[in-house]
Design brief:
Elements lengths: L1 H6 L2 H5 L1 H7 L6 H26 L3 H8 L4 H31 L9 H9 L13 H18 L3 H11 L1 H15 L4 H9 L9 H14 L6 H6 L8 H34 L11 H13 L5 H35 L3 H16 L7 H30 L3 H11 L6 H29 L6 H31 L1
């Protein structure tokens, strides 16, 4: 349940529907499910097998693979923590908008309201002031993350029993409501009309692999950490299939939720769907709120349901991103779980403040761009190379088969050693080429350097801080 909550997040609602449409509508499901079964599920089985076998955090797990590979485990737990730094800010926006839903405060022009809400300076080099509502929401979200994690895995189990099924139920309610609106069928048709000619486009296949890879939460240390908590006889392969298909199903359902309302908004305003924002923050904080304001009845109620669903989708992903680094530090330096959780949440809160300033939206975009296109891809590539080539992969396959109903054959080894690294290498090369040719968003070079290098420097700073804490504890 915790792994499903980690995999299913905000990206399922605001990224998959747009990527699906852009990749050929209903035809996109072909490369998507090919990517799911040839990369997503095999990689999740790999991480579950490592965590379940090692019974420890990612750094300790990679250390058991070979002492010289411990650094890969630390890299895997640090990157999701960096993602959490800006992910919680988006949740803080959702929290504010849930409150604003009571009186539909964004009014008729949600776009202007959103920019004013952020205090958007329009430039990452101009910091601007702090958005007070976002700041208060940030406090609430980080406090929730701390309260969920500080008592350990048993608290997580109780939380996900609520936060996993609840947003799915809310999404179904929103979908049913959306399908009853005028113009909804046109929106669904826009979403699912197959364009099979797009299947000949290599970029569509790369987009499918990227969506699967990023959506499932692999290469973030999360699945290794959660698998280490499983009982010795837990079914590894079945769990991987269930979690992956639950994530894919939620994404597909979210497409009906989103495009039924987008179709209604386009019909109400007399414009084409292509003229509306249907991806990212634009969808969540401008397009959808505008549509909610036009609902003939219970607009405030459905507004609250939408943002509550996003919050409950997001909170599982948020604390899942923090748990691996907390588990790693706790295992390495034997500092109490509560103390480590408190330190990481406080550190995370202060770093997150950059994202609630007037330039926060731009810094969020820069950080997400480099983490998603480089950080996660490189971790996945390193995982496959270390576990596939520097270790006897058949040992992990045998470990998974001992407790699993679905038997893994040698085909799994070939996917981990050859197919997945090849796809990840192509994704990485494409990202590098795009950055060079497009000069990412036209930002100055020093901003690009900060966005790409700062996360790498931060890990050394955090390691230094915890080494000092450990040495002081030993002296005492």
């Amino acid at each position: 349940m915790a792994a499903i909550g980690s995999a299913v997040g905000l990206g399922n609602v605001w990224r998959f529907p747009y990527v699906c449409y852009d990749g050929g509508g209903g035809a996109f499901l072909i490369p998507y499910f090919v990517a799911l079964f040839t990369a997503g599920i095999p990689l999740m089985i790999l991480e579950f097998s490592v965590g379940h076998w090692a019974r420890s955090s990612p750094p300790e797990a990679f250390k058991k693979i070979g002492k010289k590979w411990e650094w890969a485990g630390w890299w895997a737990v640090f990157v999701p923590f960096v993602i959490a730094l800006y992910y919680v800010v988006v949740m803080a926006w959702c929290f504010s908008y849930m409150v604003y839903s009571l009186d539909l405060r964004w009014g008729a022009n949600a776009g202007v309201f959103f920019r004013n809400f952020l205090g958007d300076t329009g430039n990452p080099a101009i910091l601007g002031g702090i958005s007070v509502p976002a700041f208060l929401g940030l406090i609430v979200i980080w406090l929730c993350v701390f309260l969920i994690l500080y008592k350990g895995v048993h608290r997580i189990g109780k939380i996900v029993a609520i936060t996993v099924p609840l947003p799915t139920i809310l999404l179904i309610i929103l979908t049913i409501r959306g399908l009853t609106l005028p113009g909804a069928i046109e929106g669904i048709s826009y979403y699912l009309t197959p364009n099979f000619s797009r299947l000949l486009d290599v970029n569509v296949w790369l987009a499918a692999y990227a969506q699967v890879f990023f959506s499932l939460g692999v290469a973030q240390g999360i699945m290794i950490t959660y698998a280490s908590y499983l009982k010795k006889k837990s079914d590894i392969t079945n769990n991987a299939f269930i979690i992956s298909l639950a994530d894919a199903g939620t994404s597909f359902l979210a497409g009906f939720t989103v495009f039924s309302v987008v179709g209604y908004l386009a019909a109400s305003q007399g414009v084409g769907i292509t003229e509306l924002g249907i991806g990212g923050p634009t969808l969540t904080f401008i397009t959808y709120p505008t549509a909610i304001s036009l609902l003939p009845f219970a607009a405030a109620f459905f507004g609250m349901i939408f943002f509550l669903a996003l919050l409950t989708f997001g909170i599982d992903s948020a604390f899942s991103m923090v748990e691996p680094i907390v588990s790693g530090i706790h295992g390495k330096w034997k500092i109490t779980k509560a103390k480590v959780t408190g330190i990481m949440c406080i550190v995370g809160f202060f770093i997150s403040l950059i994202f609630v300033t007037g330039s926060g939206l731009h810094w969020l975009d820069i950080a997400d761009h480099f983490i998603a296109n480089f950080g996660l891809v490189m971790i996945g590539l390193v995982e496959c190379l270390i576990l596939g080539w520097m270790y006897k992969l058949s040992k992990l396959r045998d470990h998974a088969n001992k407790t699993s109903e679905l038997y893994l054959g040698r085909w799994w080894d070939y996917l981990i050693k050859f197919a997945i690294p090849f796809v990840l290498f192509i994704l990485l090369a494409a990202a590098i080429i795009n950055n060079i040719t497009d000069h990412y968003l036209g930002y100055p070079w020093w901003i690009i350097v900060i966005g790409g290098v700062a996360p790498c420097l931060s890990i050394f700073l955090l390691s230094f801080v915890f080494m000092i804490i450990k040495k002081r504890a030993e002296v005492n």
